[in-house]
Design brief:
alpha+beta; Alpha-Beta Plaits; 5-stranded antiparallel β-sheet; Ribosomal Protein S5, domain 2; 4-stranded antiparallel β-sheet; single chain; 2 domains
């Protein structure tokens, strides 16, 4: 079974607007690389909508079996906002993003069920809008490999890297070529074997 080395995420930012019984729900989504960046975007929205009744949120970061998913209700009844928001982005199999739904209370209470539908619905609309604009993208998981090799064998390694469509950065160390290669996660073992063959085993992986 081949290793999964792609994931879906959002490119840049996206927004949506949902109105329910006088309340206004503003959805915001941001691409993030880690939890710290997610929290920074949350603070940015809190400052932007500082007069809002609530700024509820959910984020997922990481990939594979290392995904972290968290959410917050920001004063709404427990489980009525952040959890349904997180459920929607999990269902869409999205990661490396934060979604924030800002609520301006319109005078009519929605009840827990109504809140779940409103917050979840706002995120669904957000994702649909992002898909329609081509903002949902597939990213490839890569692993960086660093190797030390004699210069006469460098072109052999570069040809292998080209065949694997790998990204290459070159430097030097102790009179040898120091090469860092970014390879698709699912092709790392094949790439290592190909480099060993191309160099006759005269390569040192760091």
């Amino acid at each position: 079974m081949s290793e999964v080395d792609t994931f879906l995420t959002i490119k840049g930012d996206a927004s949506s607007l949902l109105k329910e019984k006088g309340s206004k729900f503003i959805g915001s989504a941001f691409h993030v690389q880690d939890e710290q960046e997610a929290k920074m975007n949350l603070e940015k929205i809190k400052k932007k909508y500082h007069d809002a009744t609530h700024n509820c949120w959910a984020y997922r970061v990481g990939h594979g079996d290392k995904i972290i998913g968290l959410s917050g209700d920001d004063g709404e009844p427990s489980g009525s906002a952040g959890a349904p928001m997180l459920s929607v982005i999990e269902g869409a199999e999205l990661t490396n993003l934060i979604v924030i739904v800002t609520r301006y209370f319109g005078g009519t209470k929605l009840g827990v069920g109504g809140l779940i539908r409103a917050y979840g619905g706002c995120v669904k609309l957000l994702i649909e809008t992002a898909k329609g604009s081509g903002t949902i993208i597939e990213e490839t998981i890569r692993e960086d490999l660093t190797l030390l090799i004699d210069y006469p064998l460098l072109n052999n390694v570069l040809r292998v890297a080209s065949r694997f469509k790998a990204e290459v950065r070159q430097d030097h160390e102790d009179g040898k070529a120091l090469v860092t290669v970014s390879v698709r996660l699912s092709e790392v073992d094949k790439f290592r074997s190909a480099v060993v063959d191309a160099s006759g085993g005269n390569v040192l992986f760091r």
